[in-house]
Design brief:
- The protein is α+β, with helices and mostly antiparallel strands.
- The protein has 6 helices and 5 strands, in the order ααββββααβαα.
- It has helices spanning 2-33, 39-46, 87-90, 94-107, 124-142, 147-153; strands spanning 58-64, 67-75, 80-82, 85-86, 113-120.
- α4 runs parallel beside α5 (124-142).
- The protein is flat.
Length: 182
């Protein structure tokens, strides 16, 4: 009885190997007959349409902490304007101005787009982060092929950290009132 079971298992294994070999041969023959697909055709199929308005601009909303920025980009010389002021006057600290350039450097599009942004809420650091997020999203809307490098750099992810709310019975969000034994 055990010999019969072994022979059945051997028979099944042999049939499985034969079917695998036959399917591999069939797939090889089928792949030879198929039409070659170019890389451009794949890109056209996968990428979405650019979202550009009538004035040739791409719009996006960027957020960080409590700051919200509305950002428009259009081809230009690399001028950045925030709330009607130049970036050097609005963001006096060099670190904040550097943050605005990061998406362009990552996408290798430095000094190719003009940026017009309005920022509200939060402080200067939060507003700079919001403008950077908006620039990144607008670049993706203008050129969908830029999504992979910007996503890899982490520029499309919203920094969702916000101030924790104050709770009742507490001095602040977590700080308690001074304890008195008597």
């Amino acid at each position: 009885m055990a010999d019969e079971i072994r022979s059945l298992e051997d028979l099944k294994a042999g049939m499985a190997e034969a079917s695998v070999e036959a399917s591999v041969e069939a797939s090889v023959e089928a792949s030879v007959d198929t039409v070659e697909v170019t890389e451009e055709a794949i890109v056209e199929i996968v990428l979405p349409e650019p979202k550009i308005d009538d004035l040739g601009r791409a719009y996006a909303t960027g957020k960080r902490k409590d700051a919200v920025a509305r950002v428009w980009i259009k081809p230009g010389s690399g001028k950045i304007t925030i709330n009607g002021r130049d970036q050097e006057t609005y963001f006096a600290r060099p670190v904040l101005r550097m943050m605005l350039q990061q998406p362009f450097e990552c996408a290798e599009r430095k000094d190719q787009y003009d940026v017009i942004a309005t920022a509200k809420g939060g402080g200067l650091s939060g507003q700079a982060g919001a403008v950077r997020h908006g620039i990144s999203k607008a670049l993706v809307f203008y050129e969908p092929a830029l999504r992979p490098p910007l996503k890899k750099g982490g520029f499309l992810t919203r920094d969702s950290r916000v101030v924790e709310r104050k709770k009742y019975g507490r001095a602040k969000a977590r700080k308690s009132f001074q304890f008195s034994k008597r």
